[in-house]
Design a protein that fits this description.
Length: 151
C-alpha cells in the first residue's frame, strides 16, 4: 500500500527525475509541453504550495502539488511514475487533495490541463471534475468538494 508523506528538501531531485520520466514519449505529457526546471523548482518551493509525495517501499511512485485559491485548491502537478500507472494512484492523490480542501472548508478543486493531455482529462472526468472554462494552458476543470463539518 502506498504511503503519502509531505515533501522533504532531499526529495526534490527524485521529484524532478520522476517528472521528466513522465514526460518522455509514451510516458505522459504531450511533446508540446515546454518544461522549465527553474519554473518547476519555483512552483514546488512556493510557500503557499503543498506537495505530497507517494512512496511504495523505497520507490517514489508519484506526487501531487496544490495551492489555495480564493475558494478552492488548485492542483498544479500530479505525476505518477509510468511503471505505476493504471493502479488507481492518481485517483488516491486527487482524493487526498479533496480531503485537504474539505478540511479547509473550501468549495472545490481546480486544475488546468492541455487539451492534448487526454489521459489527464479522462482521469479528471472519471474523478468527477467538469470543464468550467479555458485557462492559460488549456481546459480549466473543477470538482465540488463537500466541506467537513465541525463537531
Amino acid at each position: 500500500m502506498p504511503v503519502l508523506l509531505p515533501l522533504k528538501a532531499n526529495d526534490y531531485r527524485a521529484i524532478l527525475e520522476l517528472t521528466r520520466e513522465s514526460m518522455e514519449p509514451g510516458g505522459g505529457e504531450p511533446g508540446d509541453f515546454q518544461f522549465s526546471e527553474d519554473l518547476f523548482r519555483d512552483m514546488i518551493a512556493d510557500g503557499d504550495a503543498t506537495t505530497l509525495v507517494m512512496w511504495e517501499g523505497d520507490a517514489m511512485v508519484g506526487y501531487v502539488t496544490f495551492y489555495p485559491g480564493e475558494d478552492h485548491l488548485f492542483v498544479n502537478w500530479l505525476v505518477v511514475h509510468p511503471d505505476y500507472r493504471n493502479r488507481g494512484l492518481a485517483t488516491l492523490l486527487l482524493e487526498e487533495v479533496g480531503r485537504a480542501a474539505a478540511q479547509r472548508g473550501l468549495a472545490s478543486l481546480r486544475t488546468c490541463l492541455q487539451e492534448s493531455n487526454l489521459a489527464a482529462i479522462a482521469l479528471c472526468d472519471a474523478a468527477g471534475f467538469r470543464r468550467v472554462g479555458h485557462g492559460p494552458i488549456g481546459s480549466v476543470m473543477e470538482k465540488t468538494v463537500v466541506p467537513e463539518r465541525g463537531e
